[in-house]
Design goal:
Blueprint: H1 7-17, H2 21-31, H3 33-37, H4 39-43, E1 45-51, E2 54-59, H5 62-70, H6 72-83, E3 90-95, H7 135-143, H8 151-173, E4 177-178, E5 185-186, H9 194-214, H10 231-250, H11 256-267, H12 276-295
Helix pairs in contact: 7-8, 9-10, 10-11, 11-12
Protein name: DUF721 domain-containing protein
InterPro entries: DciA-like (IPR007922)
Length: 296
């Protein structure tokens, strides 16, 4: 009688034989996400897509999006330790998008920008047969399908657009309005949704950081001639810039430019006001932490 092989032993080989082992191996991270990043990160983020070397994550709030961005290198390190070899080198972040119709009564699943939303009757579902589409709207939909030759595919695409049009009407009738940038539905009186607002904020921070790379000892009142920014935005950009160069020094960089950039960002002094000994001592402070950790 042939001995039955252990499932743990035969599963990887079987998956390899049918050509999906690599996909199975990559997606193990989804089920182990809480163990890898901890309960806090796991509760406030979700894996959307894995395409090495990039991992696409959604964050449930702008605060957690910023937290994940700040901890990106540590998260990547934990992920690669889980895989046993370098797989992911960067994380791309998106704001979590909620299906307003499907989960409209699920308070735990609604994002902060839905606060103040209209109260719904029933379970939040809607009957598409009771929502009418005008001839003009149908004509606009048909105009987008003229290049689809396959009649079955064309009908599927047409029906999908009709259903989306009806869903949009359903939401609009109940007080929702769309973000003009990405089309996300929301009820709070704001020009753009949280996701786009955060995207614009990050672009603004990036602009400030580019100025800081040119003038690392510049003050907030002086930077206004290059980019208008609040003290909070300036401090955020400066903090991230300091962390960037601190990380370089911490992991052993001896580049003089990076050393002076870190010193100028921290002290606000110009190159002529910084002695070489002071800069070296400052940088050695952070480099020594790395060397001590490496010896352990």
């Amino acid at each position: 009688m042939q001995r039955m092989e252990n499932l743990d032993a035969c599963l990887p080989r079987t998956l390899q034989d049918i050509g999906i082992y690599e996909t199975f191996h990559l997606n193990r991270i989804v089920h182990e996400w809480k163990k890898i990043v901890g309960p806090g990160f796991a509760k406030n983020s979700r894996i959307l897509h894995i395409e090495p070397p990039v991992l696409v994550l959604s964050a449930f709030t702008s605060q957690w999006m910023q937290e994940i961005k700040m901890q990106e290198k540590q998260i990547i390190k934990k992920i690669n330790e889980f895989y046993g070899h370098p797989v992911i080198t960067s994380i791309r972040l998106q704001m979590h998008r909620q299906s307003f119709v499907k989960d409209i009564n699920n308070e735990d699943a609604v994002l902060p920008y839905l606060i103040g939303r209209p109260k719904y009757m029933g379970d939040g579902s809607y009957d598409t047969s009771k929502i009418t589409i005008s001839d003009e709207e149908l004509a606009r939909i048909d105009a987008t399908l003229v290049n689809i030759e396959n009649p079955k595919l064309k009908e599927i695409a047409r029906q999908a657009q009709i259903n989306q049009c009806k869903k949009n009407k359903h939401l609009a009738e109940r007080g929702f309005h769309q973000c003009p940038v990405c089309g996300t539905w929301m009820t709070v009186p704001r020009k753009v949704c949280v996701t786009c607002d955060y995207m614009f904020y990050r672009k603004h921070i990036g602009t400030i950081k580019r100025v800081l790379r040119k003038y690392p000892n510049i003050r907030q009142d002086q930077i206004q001639q290059f980019v208008k920014c609040s003290m909070n935005a300036f401090n955020e950009a400066k903090k991230e810039s300091i962390y960037y160069y601190m990380d370089k020094i911490h992991f052993g960089s001896t580049d003089q430019r990076q050393k002076y950039m870190l010193a100028m960002l921290i002290t606000g002094k110009s190159v002529k006001d910084l002695s070489e000994d002071f800069v070296n001592n400052l940088c050695n402070k952070y480099r020594s932490k790395y060397l001590d950790e490496k010896k352990r």
